[in-house]
Here is the input.
Amino acid sequence: MTETRKVAVVAGNRIPFARQDKTYRHASNSDMLTAALNGLVDRTGLGGQELGEVVAGAVLKHARDWNMVREVVLGSKLAPSTAAYDIQQACGTGLEAAILVGNKIALGQIDAGIAGGVDTASDAPIAVNNALRNVLLDINRAKSLQDRVKVLSRVRPKDIVPEIPRNAEPRTRKSMGEHAALTALEWGITREAQDELAYRSHLNLAAAYDRGFQQDLITPYLGLEKDQNLRADTTIEKLAKLKPVFGKGETATMTAGNSTPLTDGASAVLLSTDEWAAEHGLRPLAYLTHSQTAAVDYVKGAEGLLMAPAYAVPRMLQRAGLTLQDFDYYEIHEAFASQVLSTLKAWEDPIFCKERLGLDAPLGEIDRDKLNVNGSSLAAGHPFAATGGRIVAALAKQLDENGGGRGLISICAAGGQGVVAILEK
Amino acid sequence: MTDRYQTFTRTPLGRTLVKNLGLPDPTPLPRWTEGSAVIDGQVVFGAIGETDTGKAIQALLRDIGASFSTAAEGVASSTLRPKALVFDATGATSTADLTSLQRFFSPLIRQLGTAGRVIVVGRTPELSATPEQQIAQRALEGFTRSLGKEVKRGATVNLVYVAPDAQDQLDSTLRFFLSAKSAYVDGQVVRIGTGQLVGNDPAAPLAGKVALVTGAARGIGAAIAQTLARDGATVLGVDVPQNANDLRKVIAKIGGNELLLDVTAIDAPQRIAAAGADLGGLDIVVHNAGITRDKRLANMRTDTWDAVLDVNLRAPERITAHLLESGGLNEGGSVIGVSSIAGIAGNNGQTNYATSKAGVIGLVQALAPRLADRQLRINAVAPGFIETEMTARVPFAIREIGRRVNSLQQGGQPVDVAETIAWFADPASAGVTGNVVRVCGQSMLGA
Here is the structure.
């Protein structure tokens, strides 16, 4: 086996994220991913070049988009000879794509590649329901007109109702927010703490825009220049006024303000070896050094749906020989403020760390001033598969700006999964 | 939950129909209310000879201010309307002495008042001095269980076996069986052994104690939490986060503490122990959380089977083991399991549930002797048909049968289970361990 090579994050780009059914309501996944990709190609001067691979995905995807990423590459400014494939790991898609590209670079199979992700909650794939689908397939199989009429007569009014994708777990039929609300109760996460985290997310993202941090991370799209969900003028008081949307009764704490909204958007990140970057007049912002995925059994209630990162991080830390405090930045994807706070509380909890993680001592507290310093999903929004690319690009740039350091990325995903990684410079 | 039939039998039309058609005639059972006397009415005490146990019983009757008369043999009197008949049979040394039962009770039994109490106190058969005594003492069970089925108007009959030299432990048990707290406990046999004498206040027997109640948000669990709090305990109520709102309401009412977790979680025992330690350690542990997932065995899925065993049996087993190992249970502590008559009699479609509930009995039997040297106790209640949201969902016909096939011809209330648990929890019940007491109105199932 050859020695592995360092994996550099060279550049990143995304389009501003738009709220569901707003500015991007008529944009398809392919449109948005192409925009993000072309923006990256333009900025890095890679037009017409062939890359090792483009890996991306979408969580909500039309059946006709089965080869979406390859089609996007063919319609992009990259050379048509650039290979591509689709992946899907719910909200972990974007980061997982970066890990996959990174692994091939590390193993010497490719020198450079782009990882990305896109999602639209507006242009959602509405499907005919299963009963009607069976009828239509049977009509297709029928040999005579008479047979076709006979099959068609099976259609009942209720069969016409379309199947609309729901943000719900197939095995529990509970939405992600309802799951997170249970975890929040279990960890005793207060409404105040959640609103505070949401407030800081908006504040930090607004500041990032103000100081021009986003300048080379974003390509305006359809007239949108900033994330549509960002409320630079929000206050704790405004957040405190919102009614809970997940959970019921007096114990409900999760509002539209401290939960991410459904969003449309796309992102892309360029990864390569040091040599390839130098050859193309580019320079590494940071290196992708470690990664880990984990999954939990949330179906029987043994663990919260979004708690997998709490398991993935300590495994990765052990392999990397690091402690939770050995980081300059923490990028914990804010699916819900309560998810971030439950994860942090779990790491501080001696019982959780001993009994569930098998550790002798808790991972401990983190310095909250290092958390999501440029804002995260509560402010920016969260087009599922696009979030990983947003975080990798922003953290790499932050590390570069800082003149070095180490950052932790943690992303929870549907199905009880978690994808985490370390960027260093 | 209301029993509509029972309500109907109290109407003029209902009374006529019940009388003429010979329909079930369930007497509304009074329940104990705070501040009321242990027993309100005449007590007639009888005995086979003079014994230390008999003296202890009479001392208690005086202590609770009961007006009582003594008679070796019952005295028939049309004016006498006793509320309770207490008979000390510890003096029965051979089967010849059993005659005294008939002599005492036959003339009196018809006079027994509404929701009357019959308590027979015997010597624990296996601890008898002679084979003859053991035979006679064992015979008492047949007497009380039959008499339970004969007495009318909501009366109950129970047998208390007391170990030699354990008469000083009778206090809390007699108070329980004499009072309306035992309204739905009928045809039961309890065993009392020796234990430390605890001079606590019968008005607040659990003062200063910390009680864990799992499944405290609703139904029987909520009643247990309220009853233990009424008796002075600080309650640590546990339920799954799905029931957070209900749990908060229960806890707000009684001023206790709440802990949201799934008792089957891998770290549930440690979390419970930690929450208990914050309150100064646990004195009372009530494993009430329970679920049903009814399916005939042929249709039973692995997860359905496991879910029921995990919640109903494995969780109590693991939590108890951890508390014992970690010292999370204070000295004099009392562990209480919730079994079920399904665990005793079995039930169609409940192989998983009955296995778990019979396992709870196993837990009591396995741990009681092992805990005795550490001054810890373990007992279980086995509820029969209790009027809860869970039984309200049972189909009408099955529900009606469940309600009527017992000596009291009605379902019990959650508070009946709770009162029985409060008696187990009482530090004065130091001699009460290893018992499984049914709260079933003397159900015919599994009797």
Summary: Chain B has two domains: 38-192, 210-439. Chain B is about 40% helix and 15% strand. Chain B has a mean pLDDT of 93.
